[in-house]
Amino acid sequence: MFGILLGKKEYHIDVSTLAFIDIAFIILSAGTKWGYIFRPYACYGLIILAMINIAITRRVNLSKITLFYSVLLIMMLINCYFSYDRLVSFNFFVEYLSVFLFCITTDLSNFDSRLFKVIDVLTIVVAISIIISVPNPAAFARVFQFMLGDVSTFISRGNNGQYSGFAKEIAEAAVLMNYGLAVQWAEAFTKGIHKKNVIKMIVLFIGLLLTTKRTLLVVAIVAPLLFFFLSRIQITTKVKAFIAIVFVGVIAYIIVSNVPALSTVIGRFQDLDTDESHGGREILWTYSRMMFDSNPTWGIGYGTFNSFFNTNYGNEIIKMNWIAYGHNIYLEALGEIGIVGTILFFMPVMAAVIIGIYEIRTGHEQQRKYRFFFWTYVIIMYIIYGYSGNCIYYIQQLVMFVLAVSRIFRNKEASVLE
C-alpha cells in the first residue's frame, strides 16, 4: 500500500492489486486489438510495479525456482549481445524479466483464487461468444470490430468453420477454453461434481471444438483422464468425475456428428496421417535444426527464428515474410538458446509437473489441491501444445507458462512451511 496526496485527500493504492490487474490483462487479453497494443507496455508496467514494491516492502520472495530463472535471465541478457536479432532477443528478455520480478516481489497470498475467479467468468463469456459467432461470423465481426481490430482473417476462418469469438485468434481461443476447463476440473476433483460444473464444461468444450485446434482438444481429453487415474480421491468423487468425463464426451460427439459447422473438426482429425496434417510445419522445423547446427551450445538468440528464416531464403520458399515462429518450442529453443538454455528452461518445467502430480496424489487440504490441479493442467497443456505451437513466443502464453511453473514451486514451499 502506498498513498498519493491529491489536494487535501490521500488515496491509498495497493501495488499487488495493480500488479494482479496488469498480469491478468497480459495472460487473458488473447488476440484482441487491445491486447496487441498494450501487452508490451503492460510488461514494462510489471517491472515498474515490482520496483515500487521493493521500495515499499524492502523484501523479495525467493524460492528454489528463482535460481533457475536467474541463471536463465543472465544467459539471455548476455546472449542478446551475440544474438542474430538483438532487439527481438532483448524484448523477450524484458518479458521474462517482468514475470520473474512479479513472482518475487508481489504478495501472491490471494493471487490464485482471484485469478481462478476471473478465468472462470471470462472463459465462459468467450465460449458463448464463439458459439454465437457461428451463424454469421461477418456480422459478429462487424459488431465487435472495436475490440477485435482487423477482422479479415477472423471472417475468412469463420467462413471455413474455424471460430474464435472475442479471443479473435483460434489458437488463443482454444488456450482460453483450456484455462476454463482447468478451473472446472480442478473444482470437480477437489470439491465434487455439480450440475453447474458439467454445464460449464459442455459450453467450454463446444467452444474448444469450434476452434478446430486438434492438439489443444487432445489436451482437454488427456488432462482430466490423467487426473482421474493419478488422483487419490474418494471413490464416489472418482465415479462422478468419470461419469462427467464420459457425459461431456458423449454430448460433444453428438454435437460434432450433427452440426454441419463442426465438419471441419472431423476433417482435421481424419487428416492426421497425411502430409497436410502438419500444415507445412516441416520446413519450419528444418530451419530450427539449421539454427541449432550453427551454435548447438548457446544458440543464436531467443526469438530470432523469424529473422533467421526470412534472411536465409525461407521467405522465398513459402512466398511470404514469416512472422509466426517455428511451431515447435523444443526444436526452436534448441536453435535459439542452445542445449544449455533449453536445459535451464525445461528442467524446472518437468520438476513442476512431478511436484504437481505428487501433490495431487498425496495432498489433503482441498484448496491447496485445487491450485495444484489447475497449474499442473496448464503446464501439461503447454508441454503437449509445444510440439506444434509457439507457447513460449507469444507474451500472453509465455507469461502464463512461466507463472504456472513458479506457482507450483511456491505452493509446494508454502505447504511445507504449513
Overview of the molecule:
By secondary structure, the protein is mainly α. The protein has 19 helices and 2 strands. It has a two-stranded antiparallel sheet. The longest helix has 34 residues, at 329-362. It is globular, with a radius of gyration of 22 Å.
Topology:
Elements: E1 2-6, E2 9-13, H1 15-28, H2 33-57, H3 64-82, H4 86-105, H5 111-132, H6 137-143, H7 145-148, H8 152-159, H9 170-191, H10 195-211, H11 214-230, H12 235-258, H13 263-270, H14 281-294, H15 305-311, H16 314-318, H17 329-362, H18 366-385, H19 395-417
Antiparallel strand pairs: 1-2
Helix pairs in contact: 1-2, 1-19, 2-4, 3-4, 3-17, 4-19, 5-9, 5-10, 9-10, 9-11, 9-18, 10-12, 11-12, 11-18, 14-17, 17-18, 17-19, 18-19
**Beta strand count:** 2
**Order of helical and strand elements:** EEHHHHHHHHHHHHHHHHHHH
Question: What's the rounded overall pLDDT mean?
Answer: 85
* Main pleated sheet: 2 strands, antiparallel
Largest sheet: spatial strand order: 1-2
**What percent of residues are in strands?**
under 5%
The class by helix and strand makeup works out as mainly alpha
Ends: how far apart?
26 Å
Detail the poorly predicted runs: 4-8, 273-277
| Helicity, as a percent range | over 70%
The gross shape turns out to be: globular
Radius of gyration: 22 Å
Quaternary structure type: single chain
Count of helical stretches: 19
